Backbone:
Protein backbone atom coordinates (compact mmCIF):
# COMPACT_ATOMS: atom_id res chain seq x y z
CA UNK A 1 0.00 0.00 0.00
CA UNK A 2 1.24 3.50 -0.83
CA UNK A 3 0.75 6.32 1.70
CA UNK A 4 1.32 10.03 1.01
CA UNK A 5 2.26 12.47 3.76
CA UNK A 6 2.66 16.21 3.32
CA UNK A 7 3.32 19.61 4.79
CA UNK A 8 1.04 22.39 3.54
CA UNK A 9 1.35 26.14 3.98
CA UNK A 10 -1.20 27.67 6.31
CA UNK A 11 -1.79 30.94 4.41
CA UNK A 12 -4.85 30.66 2.14
CA UNK A 13 -3.19 31.74 -1.12
CA UNK A 14 -0.12 29.58 -0.52
CA UNK A 15 -2.30 26.64 0.47
CA UNK A 16 -3.95 26.82 -2.94
CA UNK A 17 -0.53 26.54 -4.58
CA UNK A 18 0.31 23.57 -2.39
CA UNK A 19 -3.01 21.92 -3.18
CA UNK A 20 -2.25 22.05 -6.90
CA UNK A 21 1.13 20.50 -6.09
CA UNK A 22 -0.47 17.74 -4.02
CA UNK A 23 -2.95 16.89 -6.79
CA UNK A 24 -0.09 16.63 -9.27
CA UNK A 25 1.91 14.46 -6.87
CA UNK A 26 -1.09 12.15 -6.37
CA UNK A 27 -1.59 11.80 -10.12
CA UNK A 28 2.03 10.76 -10.54
CA UNK A 29 2.42 8.52 -7.49
CA UNK A 30 -1.12 7.09 -7.32
CA UNK A 31 -1.15 6.56 -3.53
CA UNK A 32 -3.81 4.45 -1.84
CA UNK A 33 -3.98 6.86 1.13
CA UNK A 34 -3.29 10.59 1.46
CA UNK A 35 -3.03 12.16 4.91
CA UNK A 36 -3.71 15.90 5.22
CA UNK A 37 -2.67 18.19 8.10
CA UNK A 38 -5.03 19.07 10.94
CA UNK A 39 -7.98 21.18 9.73
CA UNK A 40 -6.14 21.74 6.47
CA UNK A 41 -8.69 23.84 4.58
CA UNK A 42 -8.64 26.90 6.84
CA UNK A 43 -5.85 28.97 8.40
CA UNK A 44 -4.90 28.04 11.95
CA UNK A 45 -7.50 30.07 13.86
CA UNK A 46 -6.56 28.65 17.29
CA UNK A 47 -3.50 30.93 17.34
CA UNK A 48 -6.02 33.56 18.53
CA UNK A 49 -6.98 33.11 22.19
CA UNK A 50 -10.46 34.61 21.96
CA UNK A 51 -13.19 32.58 20.28
CA UNK A 52 -14.82 34.29 17.29
CA UNK A 53 -18.05 32.87 15.82
CA UNK A 54 -17.42 34.43 12.41
CA UNK A 55 -13.95 32.91 12.10
CA UNK A 56 -15.21 29.53 13.31
CA UNK A 57 -18.12 29.53 10.87
CA UNK A 58 -15.82 30.47 7.99
CA UNK A 59 -13.57 27.54 8.87
CA UNK A 60 -16.51 25.13 9.02
CA UNK A 61 -17.78 26.38 5.66
CA UNK A 62 -14.34 26.05 4.06
CA UNK A 63 -14.22 22.40 5.09
CA UNK A 64 -17.82 21.83 4.00
CA UNK A 65 -16.86 23.06 0.54
CA UNK A 66 -13.60 21.12 0.41
CA UNK A 67 -15.34 18.00 -0.89
CA UNK A 68 -14.98 19.43 -4.39
CA UNK A 69 -11.23 19.80 -3.90
CA UNK A 70 -10.79 16.36 -2.36
CA UNK A 71 -12.45 14.72 -5.35
CA UNK A 72 -9.38 15.70 -7.39
CA UNK A 73 -7.38 13.22 -5.28
CA UNK A 74 -9.52 10.22 -6.30
CA UNK A 75 -9.13 7.29 -6.34
CA UNK A 76 -7.01 7.79 -3.21
CA UNK A 77 -8.54 7.57 0.25
CA UNK A 78 -8.06 10.94 2.01
CA UNK A 79 -7.65 11.30 5.79
CA UNK A 80 -7.62 14.42 7.94
CA UNK A 81 -9.57 16.42 10.49
CA UNK A 82 -12.04 19.27 10.24
CA UNK A 83 -14.01 21.73 12.40
CA UNK A 84 -17.62 20.63 12.79
CA UNK A 85 -20.81 21.72 14.54
CA UNK A 86 -22.59 18.69 15.96
CA UNK A 87 -25.54 18.68 18.38
CA UNK A 88 -24.65 22.01 19.90
CA UNK A 89 -20.94 21.25 20.23
CA UNK A 90 -17.99 22.57 18.26
CA UNK A 91 -15.62 19.72 17.46
CA UNK A 92 -12.36 18.89 15.71
CA UNK A 93 -13.47 15.79 13.85
CA UNK A 94 -11.39 13.15 12.09
CA UNK A 95 -12.61 12.20 8.63
CA UNK A 96 -12.07 9.56 5.99
CA UNK A 97 -13.00 10.27 2.36
CA UNK A 98 -13.10 7.84 -0.53
CA UNK A 99 -14.79 8.00 -3.94
CA UNK A 100 -17.23 5.18 -3.21
CA UNK A 101 -18.79 6.40 0.05
CA UNK A 102 -17.71 10.05 0.22
CA UNK A 103 -17.00 11.56 3.62
CA UNK A 104 -17.30 9.48 6.78
CA UNK A 105 -16.38 10.72 10.25
CA UNK A 106 -13.96 9.24 12.76
CA UNK A 107 -13.61 10.27 16.38
CA UNK A 108 -13.58 13.85 17.69
CA UNK A 109 -10.36 15.22 19.16
CA UNK A 110 -10.38 14.55 22.90
CA UNK A 111 -7.13 15.97 24.29
CA UNK A 112 -7.13 19.74 23.78
CA UNK A 113 -4.20 22.05 24.58
CA UNK A 114 -4.77 25.66 25.65
CA UNK A 115 -1.65 27.80 25.50
CA UNK A 116 0.04 30.47 23.41
CA UNK A 117 -0.54 29.74 19.74
CA UNK A 118 -2.77 26.73 20.44
CA UNK A 119 -5.92 27.92 22.27
CA UNK A 120 -7.89 24.90 21.17
CA UNK A 121 -10.01 24.41 24.30
CA UNK A 122 -11.27 27.99 23.79
CA UNK A 123 -12.42 27.18 20.26
CA UNK A 124 -14.02 23.75 20.48
CA UNK A 125 -15.05 21.06 22.94
CA UNK A 126 -13.51 17.64 23.42
CA UNK A 127 -15.17 14.60 21.88
CA UNK A 128 -16.69 11.64 23.68
CA UNK A 129 -13.38 9.83 24.16
CA UNK A 130 -14.04 7.00 21.72
CA UNK A 131 -11.04 5.96 19.61
CA UNK A 132 -12.53 3.58 17.09
CA UNK A 133 -10.56 2.54 13.99
CA UNK A 134 -11.85 3.26 10.50
CA UNK A 135 -11.48 1.20 7.35
CA UNK A 136 -9.62 2.71 4.40
CA UNK A 137 -8.85 0.64 1.32
CA UNK A 138 -7.59 -2.65 2.83
CA UNK A 139 -6.22 -1.04 5.99
CA UNK A 140 -7.60 -0.49 9.48
CA UNK A 141 -6.62 2.99 10.61
CA UNK A 142 -6.64 4.72 13.98
CA UNK A 143 -6.59 8.49 14.34
CA UNK A 144 -4.49 10.38 16.87
CA UNK A 145 -5.17 14.04 16.15
CA UNK A 146 -2.09 16.08 17.03
CA UNK A 147 -1.87 16.29 20.88
CA UNK A 148 -3.57 12.89 21.16
CA UNK A 149 -0.29 11.36 19.98
CA UNK A 150 1.17 11.89 23.46
CA UNK A 151 -1.42 9.73 25.18
CA UNK A 152 0.12 6.39 24.37
CA UNK A 153 -2.70 4.41 25.94
CA UNK A 154 -4.58 5.10 22.70
CA UNK A 155 -1.74 3.64 20.63
CA UNK A 156 -1.91 0.56 22.86
CA UNK A 157 -5.70 0.47 22.32
CA UNK A 158 -5.16 0.53 18.56
CA UNK A 159 -2.67 -2.34 18.90
CA UNK A 160 -5.38 -4.43 20.53
CA UNK A 161 -7.67 -3.50 17.63
CA UNK A 162 -5.11 -4.63 15.05
CA UNK A 163 -4.74 -1.34 13.20
CA UNK A 164 -2.27 -1.18 10.34
CA UNK A 165 -1.72 2.58 10.39
CA UNK A 166 -2.05 5.45 12.87
CA UNK A 167 -2.88 8.75 11.18
CA UNK A 168 -1.74 11.89 13.01
CA UNK A 169 -2.86 15.13 11.34
CA UNK A 170 -1.01 17.99 13.08
CA UNK A 171 -0.62 21.73 13.51
CA UNK A 172 2.60 21.96 15.53
CA UNK A 173 5.42 24.53 15.88
CA UNK A 174 8.89 24.54 14.39
CA UNK A 175 10.48 24.58 17.86
CA UNK A 176 9.28 21.07 18.73
CA UNK A 177 9.71 19.15 15.47
CA UNK A 178 12.23 16.67 16.86
CA UNK A 179 10.01 15.98 19.86
CA UNK A 180 7.05 15.19 17.60
CA UNK A 181 9.18 12.93 15.44
CA UNK A 182 10.22 11.04 18.58
CA UNK A 183 6.59 10.76 19.67
CA UNK A 184 5.59 9.32 16.30
CA UNK A 185 8.30 6.68 16.56
CA UNK A 186 7.13 5.66 20.04
CA UNK A 187 3.48 5.51 18.96
CA UNK A 188 4.49 3.20 16.11
CA UNK A 189 6.36 0.88 18.49
CA UNK A 190 3.57 0.87 21.08
CA UNK A 191 0.88 0.15 18.49
CA UNK A 192 2.83 -2.19 16.23
CA UNK A 193 1.52 -0.08 13.35
CA UNK A 194 2.90 2.39 10.89
CA UNK A 195 2.51 5.95 12.18
CA UNK A 196 2.09 8.74 9.62
CA UNK A 197 1.75 12.48 10.19
CA UNK A 198 1.18 15.56 8.03
CA UNK A 199 1.63 19.07 9.39
CA UNK A 200 0.79 22.69 8.58
CA UNK A 201 3.63 25.13 7.98
CA UNK A 202 3.34 28.90 8.25
CA UNK A 203 5.36 31.39 6.23
CA UNK A 204 3.89 34.61 7.57
CA UNK A 205 3.30 35.47 11.21
CA UNK A 206 2.55 32.15 12.89
CA UNK A 207 5.10 29.51 13.79
CA UNK A 208 3.78 26.22 12.45
CA UNK A 209 6.72 24.06 11.47
CA UNK A 210 5.82 21.51 8.80
CA UNK A 211 7.72 18.21 8.67
CA UNK A 212 5.44 15.31 7.95
CA UNK A 213 6.82 11.84 8.62
CA UNK A 214 6.08 8.14 8.58
CA UNK A 215 7.54 5.48 10.88
CA UNK A 216 7.34 1.71 10.57
CA UNK A 217 6.11 -0.56 13.43
CA UNK A 218 9.63 -0.75 14.89
CA UNK A 219 9.98 3.03 14.99
CA UNK A 220 12.24 3.38 11.96
CA UNK A 221 11.64 6.60 10.01
CA UNK A 222 10.75 5.82 6.40
CA UNK A 223 10.50 9.40 5.20
CA UNK A 224 10.24 13.03 6.24
CA UNK A 225 8.91 16.01 4.30
CA UNK A 226 10.76 19.31 3.94
CA UNK A 227 10.25 22.67 2.23
CA UNK A 228 11.75 21.44 -1.02
CA UNK A 229 9.93 18.08 -0.78
CA UNK A 230 6.52 18.92 0.75
CA UNK A 231 4.87 15.72 -0.52
CA UNK A 232 6.24 12.24 0.01
CA UNK A 233 4.82 8.83 -0.87
CA UNK A 234 6.05 5.71 0.93
CA UNK A 235 5.27 2.02 0.42
CA UNK A 236 4.07 0.18 3.50
CA UNK A 237 3.40 -3.53 4.02
CA UNK A 238 0.19 -4.31 5.90
CA UNK A 239 1.46 -7.79 6.79
CA UNK A 240 4.41 -6.19 8.60
CA UNK A 241 1.95 -4.39 10.90
CA UNK A 242 -0.06 -7.57 11.42
CA UNK A 243 3.03 -9.57 12.35
CA UNK A 244 4.29 -6.82 14.66
CA UNK A 245 1.32 -7.33 16.98
CA UNK A 246 2.84 -10.67 18.02
CA UNK A 247 6.30 -9.33 18.84
CA UNK A 248 7.77 -7.30 21.71
CA UNK A 249 6.42 -5.13 23.28
CA UNK A 250 3.00 -5.57 21.71
CA UNK A 251 2.41 -9.15 22.86
CA UNK A 252 2.97 -8.29 26.54
CA UNK A 253 -0.36 -8.33 28.40
CA UNK A 254 -1.72 -5.20 30.08
Residues:
Amino acid sequence: MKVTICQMRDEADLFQEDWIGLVGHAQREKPDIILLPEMAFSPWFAAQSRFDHKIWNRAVLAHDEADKLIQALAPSCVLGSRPLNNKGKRLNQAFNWNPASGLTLGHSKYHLPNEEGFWEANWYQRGDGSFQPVRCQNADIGFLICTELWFFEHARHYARNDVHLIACPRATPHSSLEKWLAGGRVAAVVSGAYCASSNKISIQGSHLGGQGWIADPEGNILGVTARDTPFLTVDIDLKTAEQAKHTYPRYVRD
Remarks:
- Residues 12-29 form the longest helix (18 residues).
- The domain at 2-244 is CATH 3.60.110.10 (Nitrilase/N-carbamoyl-D-aminoacid amidohydrolase).
- The radius of gyration is 17 Å.
- The first strand starts at residue 2 and ends at 9.
